[in-house]
Prior knowledge:
The structure holds 3 protein chains of 3 kinds.
Chain A: H1 2-21, H2 26-40, H3 64-67, H4 73-76, H5 83-88, H6 91-94, E1 127-130, E2 144-147, H7 158-166, H8 184-188, H9 194-202, H10 209-212, E3 220-223, E4 226-229, H11 252-259, E5 262-263, H12 278-283, E6 287-288, H13 311-314, H14 319-322, H15 352-357, H16 384-387, H17 400-406, H18 409-413, E7 421-426, E8 437-441, E9 443-444, E10 453-454, E11 460-464, E12 473-487, E13 492-493, H19 496-503, H20 512-518, H21 536-548, E14 555-564, H22 588-591, E15 594-597, E16 607-608, E17 618-622, E18 628-632, H23 648-680
Parallel strand pairs in A: 5-6, 7-12, 14-16
Antiparallel strand pairs in A: 1-2, 3-4, 7-8, 9-10, 11-12, 12-13, 12-14, 15-18, 17-18
Chain B: H1 2-27, H2 60-70, H3 74-78, H4 82-85, E1 89-92, E2 98-101, H5 118-121, H6 146-149, H7 169-174, H8 181-188, H9 215-219, H10 224-227, E3 230-231, E4 234-235, H11 264-269, H12 275-279, E5 289-294, E6 309-310, E7 314-319, E8 325-329, E9 333-335, E10 348-349, E11 351-353, E12 363-377, E13 382-383, H13 394-397, H14 400-411, E14 419-429, H15 443-447, H16 455-458, H17 464-467
Parallel strand pairs in B: 5-12, 10-14
Antiparallel strand pairs in B: 1-2, 3-4, 5-7, 6-7, 8-12, 9-11, 12-13, 12-14
Chain C: E1 7-11, H1 15-39, H2 49-77, H3 90-104, H4 123-149, H5 159-183, H6 192-199, E2 201-205, H7 209-221, H8 233-244, H9 272-279, H10 288-291
Antiparallel strand pairs in C: 1-2
Helix pairs in contact in C: 1-2, 4-5
Amino acid sequence: MKAHTSPFLETILGVVSRFRAQRLEIVQLLLVLAALLLLSTPAWSQSVSFHPDIDLLDKEGQNVLDSGRPVSTVRSCGECHDTEFIARHSFHADLGARSFDRVPAGASPYDRGSGIFGRFDPNLYVWFEPKDPAAHADTTFDDTVLRPKTPGGVDADELERWLDQLGRWHVGGGPFADRMEPNCFLCHLDVSDNDARLRAMERGQYEWAATATLASTGAVVDRNGQWRYNAKAFDPDKSINLERVRILDPSSRSCGQCHGLAVDGSEPVEWSVGMKNPRTELTGEIFAAQKLYHTRMNLAGKRDLTRPWDVHAERLLDCSSCHHSPNNPIFARESANTKPDHLAFDALKLSIGEYLRHPNHQLVKGHSSAQNLANGLDGSMRRCEDCHDAMNEHAWLPRKERHFRALSCEACHLPEMHAPARMQTDWTVLNQARGPVVVYRGVDGDPNDPLALIKGYRPVLLERRISDEQRPKLFPHNLLSTFYWVGGEPQQPVSVELLAQAYFDESGAYHEDLRKALDSNGDGALSAEELRLDSDAKTQLVSARLQALGVKDPHIVGEIQPYSIHHGAAGRGWATRDCAACHQQEAQVVSEGMRVAAYLPGGVQPAFVTDSNADLRGSFQRADDGSLSFVPERRSGELYVFGFSAWPWVDLFGLLMLVGSFLGIMGHAGLRVYHARMGGS
Amino acid sequence: MSRQLVVIFSPLLAIGMALIYFVLSAEQAEAVKDAPWDYMPAQRAHVPHASFLTGPFERPQDVTKRCLDCHPEASREVMKTSHWTWIAEEVEGLDGKPLGIGKRNLINNFCLGAQPNLEMCTSCHAGYGYDSNDFDFSDELAVDCLVCHDSTETYRKKGGGWPKDDVDLVAVAKSVAAPGRNNCGACHFEGGGGNAVKHGDMDGTLHHPMPRNDIHMGRHDFRCQDCHRTERHEVAGVLTTTSESADAHVRCTDCHAMDPHHNDRLNTHASAVACQSCHIPKVALDYPTKMAWDWSTAGQDLPEDAHHYLKAKGSFEYIQELIPEYTWHNGRVDRLLPGEPIDPEAVTVINRLEGSIADATARIVPVKVHRGKQPYDKTFKYLIVPKTVGEGGYWTEFDWNQAFELGADATGQPFSGEYGFAETLMYWPLHHMVAPKEHALQCTDCHADRGRLNWKELGYPGDPALYGGRKRADLLADDIEAKP
Amino acid sequence: MAHAAATKRVLIYTLYERLWHWLQAGGILLLLFTGAEIHWAGRIDVFGFDTAVKIHDFLAAVLILNAFLGLFFFVATGNIKHYLPHSRDYFSLALRQGLYYIRGIFRKEPHPFERNTERRLNPIQQLTYIMILNVLIPIQVVTGILMWTSTKYEPFTTLGVIAGLHTLVAWVLLAVIVVHIYMTTTGHTPLEHIRTMLFGWGEVVEVSAGASQASKRLEQSEPAPPLAKTDDEDAAHAATERSGELDVAASDEDAASDRPSEPPSQADSDEPTENESKRKTGRKKGSKRRGA
């Protein structure tokens, strides 16, 4: 038995002794050991990295081992790949900077662009305003002031402040090319160390961000806040040891670092709420092969949830299977518009080599109902029906074509989300951490409480047109309401700095009068339930304080943003399959509205955003507990669901006619009988 | 007049019936692929025997005699089976002559061999008095009917196969019925001398299993003979540790279709993967099973613990929730025969599972691999069996030489006087503890980056999900016709 | 009672016509029911939604087929004449029938248009059936087919409009059926019409064989002669009857007449009581009308 393990042990011990010799701190040693273990646990690694050895070069082209300067990905990767091309064709690097001040139609008045740059995101509460409001008409990126959600130095460099705020979602390059080069490692390294990257960025070491991402490989170590290279991790020729640094296609894990819970491996899926996992936070989507019952989260009825979090993940697909590079010769397909009519397959393709030199990083995408970034790429990805032959399946379903014309695949295959998702973000108040009060759906109690029962929720079905050729289809959505103060001239959201001044005194405690007004149970502390402006008096109090701070005409605004749900699909057997789910009078799947707010701050009725492509016709209903629900208009109209839809006046008219007939008959018959008797007597 | 009514309304009735037929037939649009219940053997109704077996019975043979009064063929039928003969089948011996092999004479890497130790091993023999090689295998009255047919669950056997002294023969005899899991389990769940020790996929939990322990027995309350179909006391099934042929295997496809899944991808797996590979993701769920046994450390006065070290037996390794190993297997076995020479420097595979990636009849099967270190004769270079139990046995005397000499007397394989310990390995293919389908392996369990299967070791160039199966990758030997 | 009028049991509805009627009746009722179940799925739950849809589709196909078979039958046998109004003065005749329903029926006046083998339907019935068979049913068929084919082809308008129309007409048909069933009780006895529709035989005022044959011949060979314009309403009415149909109210006196264009007989201008006694068709001795 021993013989089996000893070479491995020797390796470990060898590494240990070498590190000892270098007198590395024990923590770092353990970290490296952990990384080594992580790398050596697979008895056999099955995805092969075909990447040749690379030299890590700095900006001057010197090997970083010699210079000790940060790795320049543009130089290092640029030896073979056209990094300039890649950075130019990557909306991850651009994030809307190039389309700044080209506001799409229907955008909110605070939008200055369509990407994370420029778009007002009420969840993050960050937006740009022109430095000189009078010059609003033709401002450029440099003329604008970023309104961050936390206070900061007024004179700080705006871009730097943007990075402070949103840098965790920026891969580098684009507008920051000088400060932070595109971080190839973040996506292309199987063990990329996002925590180390964020640590470097927090310290303002933007130029080290890409290098820090290599930390988990042991090639670079974080010593006393400085990044040092570990020569042992390099080959003798100073190229990087590819046994340790496996460069691969991006895995789901890579994407999950920024986008939400996308998990590789077999560890149980666990998470905490927060914008760290935006997709999961906003919709409850989780992309993982693991089965639901394996989670340690307190998931209601999980013993019976024997489905995987996402059936595609479970069947070996990862994010890049669908969101691939548009010029990847294996995945790319020509759009029907540009394809020559006489060809079913165009063999004229980019060669693999040419693709590897110029991989287009404008990854293909679908139609999101919530974001307007890279709209030009909308619909470039394969949707469900491009891979699945739904007509060949669903033997049980009558009138398949009709169903598939009215329903997206997601409508049935995402019947339920099993994670909490945001329902309401309330920026009209600030909690002690100077963040908003957030209300989640799908969870009983505080989602951060491990004992809170996660019940999940059923998405609301809204019609959305995703292609000109097709009629609108029902898609599952989450509806998220956001409330915030707006004031000033011109009207702008009230910055968190001002709001914090309105709520907190110098010591960081709530102003006494506010605390008293909000503390409804009188225990001296403000709980999340108490932190709400649910009466005019409370609203007036905050409004007066904002006015005292110079905000003109402060008032509360509420908006509702629909987020479409596409990930976390359930396979056969878990999808909606019951005719009566839709085809009956009490069909909740069709009719069920969705709670959009647990309460209305300041009594303000929120309105839908104006740039969503979802059909938002419907009505709002206020419940006794103060919550607000949206009920889509579904009983009559274009989407006619047999057994559910009806024209009320048709039935009323018909009923009246029937009753009239009966009354007429009864009258007539009565007269006949009467006359017969009279005649008889 | 009523005739007219009939004339008028009968077409309506006919149309109504056509309508019902139309609706009902449309209901069955989705064809059922897998209909295992159609193949379940019918169970015979139980006839209470209490009134026939009134006793008194002085000796257990008296019970057998009473049984034979009504079932005159029973003993002769049992006596043809390996439960009685302990010979599983006839193979070509080392000398080219036919040789019957079976539990009676084969060497394993647990307790090594039965021949010198019959007085204890035969507590699992379906007869009375098999405590030496002189046993009369033709004595019809020596057949033990009760061990399989007792339904009181009180019938227990001791050395030589005799019932224990406290067994109430009359009560047991009155209870006879078709065998239940308890009857089979009394020996088969306790293989290797204790619960769960030998098989890994069979242990005491199967007496009263939950669905998670075994879907057939736990959810549907199967009895052993529902799969191990029994005709005239001949129980279907082959233990691949004591026989070489593939003829009498019990197969999943005895009841299930070859393409039972709703997913074509899964169904195509059936040409290369045995059902068990995915549907038995783990064994030894609740009790640990023995994974290794090193006899060479026996005889020392070390701290004792049934799961790690015993002076009499040496050191062990046990594992609970065993994740199986996987190998190609076509049902046939190359069994190490008594006296067959070994290479003591190499690991001797006692029952090499035949089949490879090139063999179209082979499938990837899950196995428990039991590794042993056991005595061999340094001069004659074959594995030897010591006498361990009873008078002069190693477990009382701790004298290997004496034990090997006594063992040689019983087996007829001479002992040179020089012994050593050689590494051996046995495959225990796993068939029981079939998990509920929700717990079966999923794609990622094998095909992900760190999956269960080592494709290179199995002979694939890489993950067949990407490279294609053995047919597409051109790995099948040309001369072997792929069977459907 | 001046004298007992001679009545005669004749086969009014042939077997096929009765089959056809009851098939349509059963089909339409089941269609209405399954339609209601589809419309209010869940609240009505007898077959279940999907089964109800299957039954509805199947029955619709059967009924459309039956409708065409029926059309063929009526055209081929010439029985379609029952459904076609003949008179130019149709509306005044319909008015007369309408007045009967709202006035005469209570006064035990005679049916203005007694049915017989040659003319089963009164003007109002004719109008009703024309509307049902040429307007309502075709609307249902067309909207139904549009909904059915909407599986493959997007209809020209929204499904909601089509389905709404289908539902609306279904309501109308339901009301019509209710009234239709009620109207069957307006025969000489309440069950008489139903019995006739079941067994085919009904009693009509005796028409001599010669008259019968004559009228048949007439139909086969000669078109109706133009009506003589007359101020006498009764006479005009009778003329109309004669012109298109058999002399329903033919009395014993003019039974022998074989001249269809003969001027109105005496009987037609008889006072109602007289008429009634001649036309009584109730077979039951104790029938109210006879007793009256």
